[in-house]
Amino acid sequence: MMSSSVEQWAENELASVNLGDKRRDKRARSILATFARRPGGSVTGMAEDHAEVSAIYRFLRNDAVQPEALRAPLRDAALERLGDEKTVLVPQDTTCLNYTTHRATTGMGPIGAGDGSKGYGMFVHSAIAISESGVPLGLLHQQSWSRSKQIGRKHDRKRRPLETKESFRWIQTARAVEAAVPADRRLIQLADREADFFEMFAEPRRDDSFLLVRVYQNRRLEDDERLLWDKVAQLQPASTYEMLVHTSHTTTARKARLELRFGLVTIQPSCDGVHDKGLEPITLTAIEVREIDAPKGADAICWRLLTDLSVDSVMAAKLYVKYYELRWLIERYHYVLKSGCEIEDSQLRSFEAIERLLALFSAVAMRLLWLTYSARKRPDAPCTVVFSDIEWKVLYRYHHEQPPPDEPPRLKDAVLWLAQTGGFLARKGDGEPGVKVLWRGLMRLQDIVVGVLLMAGDVYKG
Question: Where in the chain is the domain with CATH 3.90.350.10?
């Protein structure tokens, strides 16, 4: 077994793991390091030999290993990385894992939107911590489930109690996040239109804990004949400005010219379905940004947000729009989990085994996301905030064909070399390297580091 920063990273991520047996704890760290070295694909492709393949399968099939016991130390590691951050942004979102072609996998359910859908798989709902500058810090909460084949998604949905609906996961996650993040931090939870239901806003929150949600429903307002969207549209524009935005159709940010409106609104509880009769109207701030003169072929931005944050100036409104734009990172996180770790290609035969795999892959996906955005937000930081000594020195030697300097280079430079190791051409107009090319570079770097350690004789024979 070679000693490298991957092992140290795995030790740090699972530092507080407690699986009820120290041997299991050690095995979990070892497997996590294996997955991080060569993530994606089958277990046989990631493991070094048949013995390791067998050990990984035994671990993933072990009913004594609870998925939450693997996620808890990841939360602890994320909280440790908060450092001096005074404001913590926490987007949450849902993705589905498609196992339609893996019918032998037990415990799965329908994943399509319609009753006649033949899709088959499971759902994952995650919440990650992000710094104000947009650096992902770690996984704070995650839950996974499969739908009932009999009930599906829309069966009597409006008449069922909230606690029995899938939408309740947003409230459960918000509660878990609030319990995890220290009370001395300002917490702002970000959510898309799926979280736009009245009970989400009515949920009690601790001091300095807020919600910022994109609106889906054109709600009724108290003491106003207009509906929410109509009232906001009739507000005078407070500002027109430019901002870089991401859309769901592209990974590259583009500059958008936005018209900003905001104002207080009092929303009423929904009058259909099953709701708490004691719910009272809630006063929130509505913020709308609408794109002016969108590029040809691009979908014009129109974000309508509701928040319990105090919005007392144009500057504050712009800041909260920028915060919401960072919600895009949770989508990138799930993208890396599926396209990078390739969890949907797993041949494991049960929901429970895949849930354990998911917990470990969640850490690997976060590692790459953190690496990608740390370089963009802290370009002049020493590269040792991400890379071990051997990693950055190997990268330098590989790309410069000369001994590395005494002082570590900038993080921006080391990440560029890593991307070039993965095939990034760094041409004018190529922009920043993305997660795909960094993923390839990271895997190749690990192989090079292993070779260097072997040549140096740093080999442990058990």
Answer: 209-322
Looking at residue 149, its pLDDT comes to 72
> Out of 88-92, 241-245, 389-393, 447-451, which region has the weakest mean confidence (pLDDT)?
447-451
**Torsion angles phi and psi, residue 64, rounded to 5:** -75, -15
- 3-state DSSP assignment of residue 206: coil
Q: What is the pTM of this model?
A: 0.91
C-alpha dist (Å) from residue 158 to 39, 173, 227, 246, 270: 41, 21, 21, 33, 11
Q: Count the helices and strands in the chain (H runs, E runs).
A: 14, 12
Domain(s) of CATH 1.10.740.10: residues in the chain: 378-462
List, as one string, the DSSP characters of 55-119.
HHHHHHT-TTS-HHHHHHHHHHHHHHHTTT-SEEEEEEEEEEEE-TT-TT-BT-EE-SSSTT---
Mean pLDDT taken over the chain: 91
Amino acid in the structure at residue 27:
R
Over residues 424-432, mean pLDDT: 87
What distance in Å separates the CA atoms of residue 184 and residue 187, rounded to the nearest whole number?
Answer: 9
C-alpha 153 chain-centroid distance: 24
CA atoms within 13 A on the CB side of 254: 17
Q: What tokens appear for 432 in the block?
A: 């920043």
209-322: CATH class: alpha beta
CATH code matching the domain that covers 378-462, chosen among 3.40.50.10490, 1.20.58.100, 1.10.740.10, 3.40.50.300: 1.10.740.10
